[in-house]
Amino acid sequence: MPIPASNIRALSTAPAALRQKTSAESGFEEFVEAMAKPRHPERKRLIEWYGRVFKPEDIDLPAVQANIEKLARRRAIGKAASAKSRQSER
Asked: What is the biggest distance separating any 2 CA atoms in the chain, rounded to whole angstroms?
């Protein structure tokens, strides 16, 4: 099953090797497209580069959601601390 483009950002917590190798959202979209099409001209090169065929089911969606929630909590804490710091400077 192909990954909808709208979910690409959520996949930033995909396997570490893939995150490191596709640094931009468009790069990840191109990677997924090539992996989904057996006759894609870049597929063989990308399989060698990634180390294996990429399958969307390799992505642990509950782990992705947990990481997104963790990042959201950390961001909220950081924003609150920053606002408190600015208030104490006045």
From this structure: 63
Domain that holds residue 75: 5-88
Residues 6+ apart with CB under 8 A from 6: none
Whole-prediction pTM: 0.46
DSSP assignment letter at 22: -
Domains in the chain, number? 1
Assigned token pair, 53 = 């065929």
- How big is the chain by its Cα radius of gyration, in Å? 18
Taking the alpha carbons of 75, 22, 57, 36 in that order, is the dihedral positive or negative? positive
pLDDT tens digits, 25-82: 567 888 888 999 999 999 999 999 889 998 888 888 888 888 889 988 999 998 888 8
